[in-house]
Design goal:
The protein has 265 residues and is α+β, with helices and mostly antiparallel strands. The protein has 7 helices and 14 strands.
Length: 265
């Protein structure tokens, strides 16, 4: 197979000449059977069939003796995936008409990992191999928004108010879903709860008072721990009062108020 530019006028039984057209020879054997050419105009391939061959497709053909046909195939889509980012199946529609099939191919190639049904993520590349996506990235892909907050024992125990509880699942506040879900083998407990966009450390105290039963600690024990820390000058007292009034129940407001008054005495 080779490429050549032919004279201006060709045999009308073979191909028809078009202005500013380049012809590519697909088979240069002229033993009387036929000669087939491919025509290129404005960077598009247009097949020009030999006489008597009815071709309706616009893909270039390669023809031999008894009319055997080979169709030029396009390369599979290669999406530009962001490492550590989570994708829903519908997010892959930008690279293909069948996103589910595309997702399975990318998983087979190791470019994506399946975190849950319809949820995938691109693994992070490190010096020690691949690493999974963060909890925040998985939740953002699962919920379709960044409006959520991770809380629970990991935050509560760090306050130093006497809690030592541990959960099998990460507690997540959001505005859309409630229930327990497993993403990439990690368990998350989702609850629709009002929360600030950028919580202050004092907010987690209010959150702990609100859910002291989940932390397996009595309310009066929390009051004792909070009072001791307030007397040591820890925490912003005015911030704590305002957050308790905005996000706490009546019981939480009363408990925080008792601690603040006792610390000021």
């Amino acid at each position: 197979m080779r490429t050549s530019v032919f004279r201006d006028i060709l045999d009308e039984n073979k191909v028809h000449q078009t202005t500013k057209t380049k012809y590519t020879l697909l088979d240069d054997r002229t033993d009387g059977r036929f000669v087939a050419f491919a025509r290129t105009t404005n960077r598009e391939e247009h097949p020009v069939p030999a006489r008597g061959l009815d071709i309706t497709t616009r893909l270039p053909y390669l023809l031999y003796g008894r009319t055997s046909t080979v169709i030029a195939m396009s390369l599979p889509a290669q999406p530009q995936l962001e490492p550590g980012h989570a994708y829903r199946t519908r997010d892959l529609r930008a690279w293909g008409k069948n996103p589910a099939r595309l997702a399975q191919r990318l998983v087979h190639e190791g470019k994506l990992r399946e975190a849950a049904h319809g949820l995938y993520y691109a693994p992070l590349r490190t010096w020690f191999g691949t690493a999974p996506a963060t909890d925040e990235a998985l939740l953002a892909g699962f919920l379709g928004t960044d409006s959520f907050l991770l809380t629970g024992p990991a935050r509560w125990n760090a306050l130093g108010l006497g809690t030592t509880a541990m959960f099998a699942a990460t507690l997540v506040y959001n505005t859309q879903r409630t229930g327990e879900f497993t993403l990439d083998g990690r368990k998350f407990m989702l609850r629709r709860v009002l929360f600030p966009d950028r919580p202050q450390p004092e907010w987690f105290i209010v959150d702990l008072f609100q859910h002291h039963d989940m932390a397996a600690i009595e309310l009066h024990e929390l009051e004792t721990g909070l009072l001791a820390q307030l007397r040591l000058g820890r925490w912003n007292r005015e911030e704590l009062r305002e957050l308790a009034a905005e996000y706490g129940s009546k019981a939480t407001v009363a408990a925080v108020g008792r601690c603040l008054r006792a610390a000021a005495a």
